[in-house]
Amino acid sequence: MLRRILLALAAALSLSLTAVADGESLATLVGTSWRLTQLDDESVAPAVTATLVISADSIGGNGGCNTYGGNIAATPTGIDITEVFSTLMACDNLEQEQAFLAALEAADAFAMAAGNLQLLENGTVLAELAPANQ
Predict the structure, then answer these.
(1) Of the N and C termini of the chain, which has fewer Cβ atoms inside 10 Å?
(2) Residue 100: which CATH number?
């Protein structure tokens, strides 16, 4: 009986995380960590490290200055990142952080390209992130 309940819960979780974007599902990103490398087709400031950590239903990380968090959910056509919030410290290159947080909220899908995570809006790459361990 417990096994059936666990299998049912696992199936429900799997369905709730399924979002197809370039053949990938959101479930493949759960538990991964990323480092921002490009924003709006431009390299990011080398002195600023922005990160993204993806959990089953939330995101978090550091925007380069401030710690942030938010919600993530699968949609029938991609992903939905909502309620992004951050601490309010003032730092250099804050414009980059604000653009990154805006890109997170605007993203409606993702794709994998050469091992990097691309956040997309209507098929356009908003941000590209490399695995955090590289």
Answers:
(1) N
(2) 2.40.128.270
